[in-house]
Design a protein that fits this description.
Blueprint lengths: L15 E5 L3 H13 L3 E6 L2 H11 L3 E5 L6 H11 L4 E6 L4 H9 L4 E4 L7 H9 L7 H12 L3 H4 L12 H11 L4 H8 L3 H15 L4 H11 L3
Parallel strand pairs: 1-2, 1-3, 3-4, 4-5
């Protein structure tokens, strides 16, 4: 056999995952499942503030956040999404109600996994997230579609205020740049970000505002700041 026989075999990238959960046995089980699935647990945390700190220090590919850990998983998601925009956030929770689901999505999460599922499937779910897919159980997706089709203002609002979309200060800066006609690279230079980071912010803005694309987001900005 040629010594070059294995040169072209595809290599699966080892994803780096931060696991944040205040229940140590759960963290152990998750770590074991991820490592058996070929992933690296680059950091662990037991509360929201530590999760944010670890995310800033390690810049993982994915943050797996317990919704109800001390300090709040949604609060951690807001902060991590704002400060480490290239990291993908997945909530890991026992709560499958609509309010928690939509709070997590508005905070920047791209996945919402309920803890009663087989942990052996967790690596596959997180690889899907890394590939740009959303990790949300079918039952919750069906409820999301029903809510949006119902035009419920809680989920489709484009008004500022207590019930309106909540953008981080950095996302507003990016949106302001778009509204001024700046390119992704120009915004990146002004805010001292990588272009990929700006694109991640734009994606989050579009998702949070419930619009189709950046042009609709710009229209929202002009409407919100008029007068």
């Amino acid at each position: 056999m040629s010594v070059f026989a294995h040169v072209h075999e595809p290599k699966v990238r080892e994803l780096r995952v931060l696991v944040a959960d205040d229940h140590a046995p759960t963290r152990d089980d998750v770590r074991r499942a991820l490592e058996e699935g070929g992933m690296i647990v680059c950091a662990e945390a037991a509360h929201a503030a530590h999760a944010v700190q670890q995310a800033l220090e390690t810049k993982p590919d994915i943050c797996l956040l317990d919704l109800r850990m001390p300090g709040g998983g949604v609060a951690a998601a807001w902060e991590i999404a704002a400060r480490v925009p290239t990291t993908k956030i997945v909530m890991f929770t026992v709560a499958d109600d609509d309010a928690n689901l939509f709070s997590a999505l508005r905070a920047g999460a791209v996945g919402y996994l309920v803890k009663d599922f087989d942990l052996g499937n967790l690596p596959r779910e997180l690889r899907d997230v890394a590939d740009g897919k959303a990790a949300i159980p079918r039952t919750l997706v069906a409820r999301m579609v029903k809510q949006f089709h119902a035009n419920d203002p809680r989920f489709r609002t484009t008004e500022l205020g207590a019930d309106g979309p909540r953008l981080t200060s950095r996302e507003w800066e990016v949106l302001d740049g778009l509204a001024d006609g700046q390119s992704t690279r120009e915004i990146a230079r002004r805010l001292q970000l990588k272009p990929s980071g700006v694109r991640a912010h734009i994606s989050a803005i579009v998702q949070k505002l419930g619009v189709e694309d950046r042009d609709e987001a710009i229209a929202f900005f002009h409407e919100a700041t008029a007068g």
